[in-house]
Request: fold
Amino acid sequence: MFLALTRSPTMPIVTIQQFPRSVEQKRELARRITQAFAEVYGAEEASVQVFFSEVEGENWAKGGVMGCDRPAAPKA
Reply:
């Protein structure tokens, strides 16, 4: 009896931590990340999962200063 073992398909999971962004921006980023994984890793696009974890300024600090207490960055 011969038992063929096949490799299970990859299921890449990408987690992005960021400040809140528009759903349009997240759609585009998810699309591009999915394409990159499919191209570079040979993963099926349907298997790529992208999780967005959005953090408000009151939930992070840099250099000991809470994000909500930092001056706003100038708009370009």
